[in-house]
Amino acid sequence: MNKKLAAALSGGAVLVVALSGCSSSGSKDSGPDPKLVAWAKTVCEAVPAQDAKIRSANASIAAIATDSNLPPKDAQKTYAQAFQDMADGYKALADAISHAGAPPGVKGGAQRQQDAAKNLAGLSSAYVDLKKKVDGLDTKDQGKFAQGLHDVADQTKEIGKQNNSGTEALKRLEQGDVQEAIAKQPSCKVKASSSAPATSG
Fold this sequence. Notes:
About 75% of the residues lie in helices and about 0% in strands.
């Protein structure tokens, strides 16, 4: 049962990669607007720490998926902490994008920025709900606990759909000059490089 939950959550950290982008192509000689570069810096500064937090949460879940002897209470504690970390990570990213405001000089940038922040905030709320569900599981009855984890795993499938929507929203935000500005940020470059195997880029 743990393996099912871990598999359902395995793509969680990939969303952050969308913020990092892939390589910038066809860049202009003059480069992006300095104001846009400053905007990108504000957003990218939040990426490394939150990306690490989300990836660590996924790793914790993957680790206990292979431990069939882990007591339900310990498993509950690990899942709850992982979901809380994911919720915190996505909320921090949503806040960073929201506080950065619309990317300067980008047509439709405000709507794209709002959509991305809304999707990330929605993911955060979804993981808060998962934590509450895990906190309420019966750890004294192995059968009931296993069934509860089954229900949690089913719920993560819905979060997977939100994750896909969030990825698309971030990709829309990152189009054109925004991608070029983000590509100039060391923090985003590092994450894009280290995350390369996890995404098609």
